[in-house]
Amino acid sequence: MTCSDEQHDRLSNLSDDLICHILSFLSTKECYRTCVLSTRWESICTKIPNLHFQLPENSDPVLSKEIKFVNVALLRRTENIRKLSLNSENGCQPHDVRMWVSKALDLKVQELELDLFLHEKILLPLRLSTCESLVVLKLQGRIQPKLNSSFHVYLPSLKILHLRETVAYSIFDDRTEYALNNFLSGCPHLEELNLAGTFALPINTSFYLLKRLFLCLYIPTSVVKCFPLQINAPSLEVLYLVDFSLAPRKYDFTNLSNLDEAAIFICNPADFNNLYTVLKGLSKVESLALGSNTFHFLGMEAKLDNLHLLTFHNLLFLSVEIYENCSWNMLVSFLHNAPKLKHLAVGRKIEINSRRKEVGNSSWVEPLISPACLTNSLISFEFVGIQNIKTELDFTRYIVSHSSKLEKVKIFTPTSKKRRVEKSLRKGSKKSSVLVWDINSVEDQLDAFKDIKDLFSELFLHNK
């Protein structure tokens, strides 16, 4: 090598650690392609801390080149790994997954992410449930940690646990609640829990360090009884509860004094008192999102007068999803309970091509007393899906005209109604010249949001 070549061969002067860091920005397969450079690079590839394998659907997974690549990259490895991620839809066999996970456990894996949908259920190694190095565990698909009633689960380092879709159901195939609750109780240092699936049996556990809880529950029939969900989490800061179950379920959340953000989408509340108790436990939050069924249930109840006892003294962000026949006056009444509210977002299911009629929409009667937040604190108002219906327009005008500190109004409406909505809202508004009006076509948002649930999920996360 000449002097000039040596001057330009800067890669050889880099340390192995620095090269590993550079390779961490590439995919695992791209990293291993650098092995052709030299034996040094081949050695460096065995030290890459994060391994991600995407296995394509294959009619003959046994002979798959991808599986052979995983075997070479993982099974021959001796250096510990930080993260192993596997994604596949019928691209491998359950015994392959068990073998790879076992090897990852041997290598003191800290983060394990499996997103696998195979024809057969995957039984993970029993020793996964006592892995001391595991910090993050995310399972999605037909995956089941191998548990039995005599086995003690203990994951002392686990801080993040995601059990999504069918994995949640398969955990308790024996039709007892023991397995799931036993698994959760063996995670004493858990800080984030994400459960999504067909949970019917009781969930009853305590998490003293849990900060973020995301629940997406679904029972597709009203025949199956939904048992209570009981969570004790004194350190909880974020609660996201979505329950699409057709059967009602009772919720018991205790020690929520540190809760800062909450989103509640309950399609079939058990009763008013239980829902009222849940909301009362959220009284200290700064950000709150309520789904349409939840809000509609509150508005229909004869015990609606009890809502004045709910006061959200710290609430700054409120997102509300509404039905077509929403009680607008009930929404204003709810605003009385949030004296410091700064940001209000209202959204409805978007029906672009439907013909809307005034019939069926609740009437609007301007309140005699305005909520304190309109006078003292509200600075932004957003309405997604406004349809040029009189009650909607009246409500919007009321918010705009009675909000002394309002700075920005953001409206999303179908293109066919955009001009009429804009003209109607601006006409006669004394604040049109000082407010920032942002009126958009709602169709522009459809690519970004699949439905109103996704929209409010984004609003909730954006407002954090």
From TrEMBL:
Residues 370-411 form the FBD domain. Pfam families: F-box, FBD. Residues 11-50 form the F-box domain. InterPro entries: F-box-like_dom_sf, F-box_dom, FBD, FBL13/AtMIF1-like, LRR_dom_sf. This is F-box/RNI/FBD-like domain protein. It comes from Medicago truncatula (Barrel medic). The gene is 25492328.
